[in-house]
What does this fold into?
Amino acid sequence: MALPETCWDDGLFVMPPKADDPLRCIICCGVMQDAVQCPNQHCFGLPCLKLSLAIKNECPTCRKPLQLSAAQPALIARSLVDRLEVKCANREEGCDAVFALEARENHESQCPYANVTCTHKCGRVLPRREMRLHEIVCDAKLFDCPLCKTRVSNTSSATHKCLTSLVDKVVTLEATVASLTSKLDQQTTFNTSLEHQLKEMFQLVRQGGLGPGRAMASSAASDEATAAVSNILREGQRVSKLSTPKLKMRKRRPETTDLVVGRASFGCLKPGQVGQVLKDEHDHQPFHVIARDGGTYWYRESEVGYLATPGTPVGPAVCVAGLPVVRGEHWKWGNQDGRKMPRKPGFVVGVRDGGWAQVEWADGSANCYRIGATPDLAVASMQ
It folds into this structure.
């Protein structure tokens, strides 16, 4: 090992140079460390020359004036010293490795016999070869709980109250679900009551408008209808306060048979046109889509957007031009449109104010249908 502020000690080397070897420093007689030379090419170890020049600024050999800045690296001497074989500094701990001096730093940074401190900060100091096993079972080692993702140590894992925390969360969620279910039942009850009151209102309006001789009756019926509507509005305001909070809906990925809206300006769909997913390959261009005119095209996920699923009621949110429809389960007006249940779907051609959609059927006839609280229509397949 190196002596303080001097050159290399002989004990470091497997075969130290002879006493008269040019690689030895003439100041300390050790093997030169970071060899330098004066302008007259007299060589010394850099640590020793610094000590000598601190006493007197002259070359220790030729006695010529010398400043440290004038000393130049002795490249040949340095190269020869770097090739000398040395022993590991951990040889007393059992390392018998032999290597060139220039590889000393690299070896000792990886030597399995070198003492190192545990990286988990438990304070243990062990040889590197033993530390690997210790760090696996170290009491201070931190890891993520697989259930709640909390950072815990090996020591605290036995007392970690993860299950208790999860049970508390489940109880809270169950209470929330029960509360929302109760509010949903109240809203359903109100919707049923609203539907009956609307039917009564329509009956009153019809009875009051049968002819000129019934003007007084019509006025009375109109007043009763107005009162009924006012009651409905007041009841709606009361129930709306108990309704469930609005949830932020996530964008749904279309599936096979779903209706989609085009977003790109190429293929079988123009932007805003409706098509249906025939096949989903789940790759970079997964959706095989058919348009109303029978044309098909393969689209990426970003090129189409989910609209509706066949069989669902047609509400204002999904009622767009080109949507295929059939009469839904809420249809209660007999054959007022002059048709029986069509075998082929119709297509929405327009949406009117007040919650009505105009539909054109396969035979060319067109009628208007409700798309409000109790829609007359259901989403159909494109074919």
